[in-house]
Design goal:
The chain is α+β, with helices and mostly antiparallel strands and 297 residues long. The protein contains 5 helices and 17 strands. The strands form 3 sheets. Strands 2-11-9-4-7-6 form a 6-stranded mixed β-sheet, with no helix packed on it. A 6-stranded mixed β-sheet has the order 12-13-17-16-14-15. It has a 5-stranded mixed β-sheet with strand order 5-8-3-1-10, with no helix packed on it. The radius of gyration is 29 Å and the shape is elongated.
């Protein structure tokens, strides 16, 4: 009886294994052309990277690009030399990009080209789409088979010329705060991360480029003033040191009250509160065990 059961079990296992082996393989994902997005103020320039991925091998690649010529001007396309024989034609609002690799079934992947746009001086604030669409029978392999390709367009966000912006710092336009600053940064380093020239002001006056920026200092841009929050700097000297650890400890023991931007700077964990976690993180930083993470506002 046991022998019969073992034989039946073996047969069942064999049937299951055969069934598994006969399952169709999962279809490969389509190749993808994706255009990056960016942002800038009117009159400025941006560059959008066009990236090719999941390339099964192409012998020809043609793609159509459309954009709003009232907002954007395509000033040039810089080929990244991923594929060969690049050409493009722009009719103002619609362009065709093409590649015809010398090596058939070229499977290279990465950045195909960089598209350079200039925003119109009077471009309205908002998002301006840059779309990709298929060119009829425009993506082929060496057998002239049409390849399926997923196309993902990008966009250019037109920013208000009245505001400051940064790709590395967090800026709260409503409360006019600037964060994501680490201790002991100079005014020059801060300026390099902003999209416009500014004046940095402390209680004693204008801060020179080599001066250290601290919590509570003012960044003046035109008619708008922003206030800085430097991670871990609770007293405005630009450092995160034993004085700041003591200030956080006193806050926890209700011996003092850190308010406003100084409480933001003390919240090194970024959880919206000043807690024992912040004190321990500062102590760990001072002991050289961990680094501080820039605190966003």
């Amino acid at each position: 009886m046991k022998k019969k059961i073992m034989i039946i079990a073996s047969l069942c296992l064999l049937v299951c294994l055969c069934g598994f082996l006969m399952l169709p393989l999962a279809a490969q994902s389509d190749m993808t052309l994706a255009l990056a997005s960016s942002s800038a103020k009117p009159g400025r320039s941006v560059s959008l990277a066009l990236t090719l991925s999941r390339n099964p091998g192409v012998a020809a690649l043609y793609v159509r690009l459309t954009y709003d010529p009232a907002v954007l001007t395509l000033t040039g396309v810089r080929d990244a030399a991923l594929l060969e024989d690049f050409a493009f034609y722009d009719a103002g609002g619609e362009a065709v990009l093409s590649w015809e690799p010398a090596v058939y079934d070229n499977t290279a992947e990465g950045v195909l080209a960089y598209l350079d746009f200039t925003l119109a001086p009077g471009a309205p604030e908002g998002i301006s789409a840059v779309t990709l669409s298929p060119y009829e029978n425009g993506i082929l392999n060496k057998n002239t088979d049409v390849l399926s390709c997923a196309l993902a367009g990008g966009a250019v966000t037109v920013l208000s010329p009245e505001f400051l912006y940064s790709e590395t710092l967090s800026i709260d336009q409503e409360d006019r705060l600037i964060g994501s600053l680490l201790p002991m940064q100079t005014a020059g380093a801060l300026q390099a991360q902003l999209d416009e020239p500014v004046e940095l002001i402390s209680e004693s006056g204008t801060v020179p480029n080599e001066g250290i920026v601290g919590t509570g200092m003012t960044v003046r841009f035109g008619a708008r003033d922003y206030v800085l929050a430097v991670t871990g700097d609770t007293n405005g000297d630009g450092a995160c040191d034993e004085l700041d650890a003591a200030a956080v400890k006193d806050q926890l023991l209700a011996r003092r009250s850190l308010g406003g931007v100084y409480a933001l700077a003390a919240d090194v964990s970024g959880d919206g509160r000043v807690t024992i976690t912040d004190f321990l993180m500062i102590r760990s930083y001072l002991a050289g065990k961990t680094a501080l993470t820039p605190r966003a506002v």
